[in-house]
Amino acid sequence: MMPRNAVVAREAGHRSRRSSSDVEEAILAATLEILDEAGFEDLTVEAVAARAGAAKTAVYRRWPSKVPLVVEALTRSGPRFEVPDTGSLRTDLVALWRNVAAGGQRSIERLLPVVTAYLNSGDDLMDQLRERYFRPRLQASQAVITRAVARGEIRADADPELAFDLLFGPLAYRWLRGSPPDEDTVSRLTGLALKGLEARGPEARGLEAEGSDVLGGELGAEAQEDGAGGGV
Fold first, then answer.
1. Which of 59, 108, 175, 202 suits 53 as a labelling partner, its CA being 20 to 30 A distant?
2. Three-state DSSP string of 38-56
């Protein structure tokens, strides 16, 4: 992370005749660059405007402070979030995982430090991130679960918020560990999520068995590692 004066000292972008949308994109790109270099605390509207080659008033006309500016940059840096409706809970869950991962590792790397730093701060930044980033994904999870209940795939009292945690918690943890999940991991974790949701029927029973095998294998591997290392 660069010190604040180094960020401000970087060569400013050149102002020229640009469309409003071009100016906006330049401002958002500059915001992400400075967020990467200096973090949220040391990011300033002045530095963003200079980097984007725009006037400060151009920033403030669109965003009243750096909080909504950063939230906009983070949420727009990934692809549009779509609610999957494949007709199957399993493929819906896989699609949810893929949608989150579609923004790429860089997008997650930008988001997670902000979330971990401000999660319990009561700061307006987290309020806006919850509304703009997490709420749509929770609503997607709720829609997927509601449809699965209607199809009889899972029990009627399945908790959508717990389903959301089952889906996104392991994904976030994998990224924090520096090990983004691949397709095979997504498929296995989906099996475990379905097991937790107590899915019924032949397909679900097969997935439950798969999830149990995966969990058992992982726990067994961990036990072997602990045994070899003499415990913690």
1. 108
2. HHHHHCCHHHHHHHHCCCH
Classify 97 as helix, strand or coil.
Answer: helix
| Count of CB atoms situated within 10 Å of the CB of 82 | 12
The CA-atom distances, in angstroms, between 66 and each of 27, 36, 52, 56, 124 are: 11, 15, 14, 11, 11
* Whether the Cβ atoms of residue 225 and residue 195 lie closer than 8 Å to each other: no
Q: Does the CA dihedral 73-79-85-88 come out positive or negative? A: negative
Other CB atoms within a 10 A radius of the CB of residue 22 amount to 12
Structural domains for the chain: 4-76 (1.10.357.10), 89-224 (1.10.357.10)
Apex 100 CA angle, 139 and 66, nearest 5? 85
Amino acid symbol at 220: G
Residue 153 CB coordination number (10 Å): 21
**What is the chain's alpha carbon radius of gyration, rounded to the nearest angstrom?**
22
Please give the Cα distance from 134 to 82 (Å, whole number): 13
- Residue, of 46 and 76, whose pLDDT is higher: 46
pLDDT in tens, 95-137: 877 776 665 566 666 777 777 777 666 678 888 888 888 888 7
Tokens at 50, concatenated: 């200079």
% of residues, the chain, pLDDT over 90: 19
Rounded Cα distance, 167 and 135, in Å: 14
Burial environment of residue 182 by CB neighbours within 10 A (0 to 12, 13 to 18, 19 or more) = exposed
